[in-house]
Amino acid sequence: MALFTLLPLLHVVGYSAGVGLDVVRAELFRPRMAWLLWHSVALVLGGVALSAVIATACAWTVERTDIPAPRLWRALLVAPLAVPAFVNGYAWVSLTHAVEGYLGAVLIVSLSYFPFIYLPVTASLLHLDPEFEDTAHTLGLGGWATFTRVVLPQIRPALLGGSLLVALHLLAEFGALQMLRYPTFTTAIYEQFGTTFNGPSANLTASVLVLLCLIVLVAELRLRGRASIVRVGGGVARPPVRAALGAGRRPVIAGLILVAVLAIGVPVASLIHWMVIGSSTAFPVADLVQTTLTTLGFAAAGAAIATIAAIPVAVLVVRKPSMISTLIERSTFTASALPGIVIALALVGLVLSLTPLIYQTAAVLVGAYVMMFASRAVVGVRSALDHAPPVLEDVSGSLGLTSWGTFRRVTLPLVAPGVAAATALVFIAIATELTATLLLAPIGTRTLATQFWSESSAMAYGAAAPYALLLVLLSIPATVMLGRMASPAPQATRR
Amino acid sequence: MTQRLTTRGLVKRYGSTVALDGIDLDVEDGAILAVLGPSGCGKTTLLRLIAGFLVPDEGTVSIDGVVVADKHRSVPTRRRDIGLVPQEGALFPHLDVAANIAFGLSRHERSGPRITDLMDLLELPRDLAHRRPAELSGGQQQRVAVARALAPNPRVLLLDEPFSSLDAALRSSTGRSVVNAIRASKATAVLVTHDQDEALSLADKVGVMDRGQLVQADTPNAVYAQPASPFVASFVGEGSLLTSSIRRERGVAYATCSFGELPLANDIPGDTALVFLRPEQVVVRPDPTGEALVSSVAFHGHDAMVRLVNEQSGEMLSARVDAPVMPPVGTRMAVQLRGSALAFPQA
User: Does the predicted TM-score (pTM) go above 0.80?
Assistant: First the structure.
């Protein structure tokens, strides 16, 4: 499992090491490379900054001020996750070409990805004991000073973790940026692959992209430092005192509405618009059904394999923590930090050199899905296992149950919901995956994402709309599940 | 009385650290043994060896005279016929109270009156039967955990600091009702705790552990009155250890310490000793010529604990006084020692 998820990284490194210094120099030290590097870095910096500002401002406003209907805002601010970024790009660009270029790209990717920061920041605000803020107020700090000196340091791990996720997504983003005509390493690799096919250009550009991802990972680790939140004493945190907005009320609410309209209103309206126009021209029911079934089939196979592979890893990490088990767990994360395009490229290279027979088969595509999303399954199964502490199994054994009986009557009922949720998340991630599917899908195999892509690339916006809508519908359950992270957990009454 | 649970020479090592260093334990049928010791003394390891979650490196565990564990083979926990009450109860969160209690019963037994009998025995209101563990108070959770462990009539009930997560008031009432239930069902129990009040008030026998060894196992009264070592003396109840010289006169040994002189309960060889004084053995009264100064006072409602310091030797002594005559800090006091003192060889 660990080795399997490390394959793409090993391939990219191995390839780059193998082609010789002259080729590397010729490929990498070109004005075009510098230009791509500048574009990618600028997009990541702009996108992460804008996402962080939107997410933190929204989270603080919803959790710490007397804004009306906080529950509604929580739901609305997570909802953009239900619209895949490439669908969002299509929704905007099909309405106006003004969003093409740097500023438009930064705006639209931020609107798509800011919930990745909003979710952990909200979760950490909800867990943050308001005592800290009360204490700051008693020490004479004002609202802004309390936020910067007390709240911000404590939500920093969440903010950085979310920003890391956004940065990795932006480096990997292909569909939306291609739509918005903003070239980065990822779109460049796709085009190089299309023209030279597994040539040195694509692979070497991929290695630069991998390097960028690693830099982001290391930077996040450095910035995070060893900061940890220490909460002294037990007990349940009280609900926070919400600041009165006063005169700022109207502008703040207007700002939240603007975010919601841009992130959710525009794409949904655009989709409906094209649905109405598109259905008047063509509504290929048979094609839609066929594509949906193919998509669900791939997603089911990938999700099942990823979950089954994740179970031993998670059990090892939770029950037998050691250097080795942590290493195994972390190795499953490396592939998920790599852009889908790099994984696809690596698989093309590996399959062609090792077992050309399976090239362009469903097996390779499912393998890519497992590599990309295994870490999500591991994380999900791991947190499910936390619901079944070993002491419960001890008690069950002391009451005379066999290991099988304990598994059936104690462990399984406790972990099943969490494992099912993890499987569902992987399922949905696969069902809406575009980049790797474009490169690896067997000829003639069409998924919702690839079919949407070919229609919208051909400017057939109306024909693309039904596929986009299905992709959004498929993403809704996962969005709801993730949204639970950002809602106050029902408090158990203990003691 | 026959021995229900016996351990002989039990040793458990974790790498180079010795968690248990030769434990010999006997628990009679129907008795409640409290294993008392500071955290890290090995008491939980002992419990897990008896339960069968750990395998001893040396020595044996026997239940009803049959060896269930030695270093070669270990009967699995589920066939040892034991009951376990972990810290915080560890109720199955997906099952209600009745289903938790019924967990170890066969399908046939579950339909009988056993569950309501146990709920009555542990003073659990019957309308709790279909509540989830998260809806119970901490004390109720512990009682359900005990009912669950008692349900299949185990030969030995093991309780691992079961009351430590409860607040003081709940701790004593829960402790009492649990012990009543254990006695009523004639079960044999081993209770691991670091709380001396709990051990002294609930158990028939107290085993005191220190750094992997069982330093004394006796009735609560004997452990308190005749501690086997300075460690036991100061861990079980309060008291002061003072250096003193020994003087023998007409076959009687007297200890002289900086606070005064009193006869020894036990003579030991040599001229010096560490003597142990309980606070109730120390009588104090304000006296401007006294040598002891009050250094701190802790008020306990019915009485107060006064810490005295001797001006000359710098030694400390605790005395219990009635609350109304509590002296302020800094008062000069005269000290009188009564009864006899226990002597330990000076280390």
Answer: no
